[in-house]
Write the structure tokens for this entry.
Amino acid sequence: MSDEVNPFESLQEQIDDAAAYLDVDDDVIHRLKYPERVLETNLSVDMDDGSIQRFKAFRSEFNGDRGPYKGGIRYHPGVTRDEVKALSGWMVYKCAVVDIPYGGGKGGIVIDPSEHSANEIENITRSFAEELRPFIGEDKDVPAPDVNTGQREMNWIKDTYETLENTTEPGVVTGKSLEAGGSEGRVEATGRSTAITAREAFDYLGKDIVGADVAVQGYGNAGWIATKLIDELGANIVAVSDSSGAVHDPSGLDPVDVKEFKRDTGSVSGYEDTEALTNEELLTMDVDLLVPAALENAIDGDLAEDVSADVIVEAANGPLTPDADDVLTEKDVHVFPDILANAGGVTVSYFEWVQNRQRFYWDEERVNEELEAVITEAFDDLTDAYASFDLPNFRTAAYVVAIQRVVDAFTDNGNWP
Ligand code: NAD
């Protein structure tokens, strides 16, 4: 993993690469490369031992031309202002590429959640929700889960907001538990869009996914569901990893069994009858499909030289640096980008928000059918742009589609002087 690449600069480079193919004024493109506003705050929170600790937290609202700011909240010691800005920008283009009526936002707290009790995490989350209160709302900015946050944190944010506002507004956050107004299918949605993208990609490239060898980096929410569903498509999962390391079995791993092992032991490492690999070894394995599903900058330009996969489908946000993209384009490795391949999460968040607003709830079958339609349609838009603009890779194609949609919304709205 490269620590030197600033994800915000990566985002800006990706926008420039795609904008070069579009007939859009530089002034408009410039506007699309910076957030509209960023909240930076220091939360002061009571700890279980009676002390008070401070936590730096951010919320970036990148662009609202197509609808309310939308994006997750991450709890991680490595959160930085620039990372949050980059992630909020990727949300703008992700929502645009799948054509749902949202802008982009993202938040984060600099924290190692494993060092805190559930009570402390609740206090920290409610304190952040209080800071966010003037900015969020179902028509303003709608947070969701990201790394190390989930239904529990979203329920606390909703409850804090609703209590302080003296209202009921479940659509203020998405990714809630079903009982708190969540949607069926939300937990699986990100990995599901990765699996749909992998299936469509293999079909488009004339490759057979049945029997294809697959390696997955990161066995968290996005990674494990993607692994399970890609396995169900008939592929052969030969390696998976988490932050403790990677395990390899050329005859194929059982994703559900690996997940149970991880639940019992805390990691995939040591899973029976497997060879231990480093994460770098996993990323450079000779497989048909590589799925990075951990964090950003997992593959930089140097590591990309050694990547041997034929196809990469990005479940994580920003797992390849721009240098890696250049190397992989040169090597004819087909990369299907994050803003499509993990857009299932935000798409089902959108379905959750629609259901919250209508107070009318869908069953899982309907959610999965609607998700299938959104992702396959976006895949077709992306491959149409790839062919008709004669673009160098599928990431540029995704940005061409997405930037044009944001520019159209901005142009139709008109500029406020
Ligand atoms: P998670 O915390 O559930 O899982 C992350 C996994 O990556 C963990 O298993 C962790 O051990 C592993 N990991 C961390 N560093 C690693 C390393 N260096 N090598 C190998 N494994 C490593 O998080 P998640 O929700 O699954 O998110 C993963 C990625 O997917 C992030 O980039 C996130 O932004 C993106 N994403 C998630 C969602 C969602 O709905 N969960 C939606 C869109 C995008």
Residues 1, 146-148, 190, 217-223, 241-243, 279, 293-295, 315-317, 342, 345 surround nicotinamide-adenine-dinucleotide (CB under 6 Å). The longest strand covers residues 52-63. The mean pLDDT is 96. Residues 189-341 form a domain with the Rossmann fold fold (CATH 3.40.50.720).
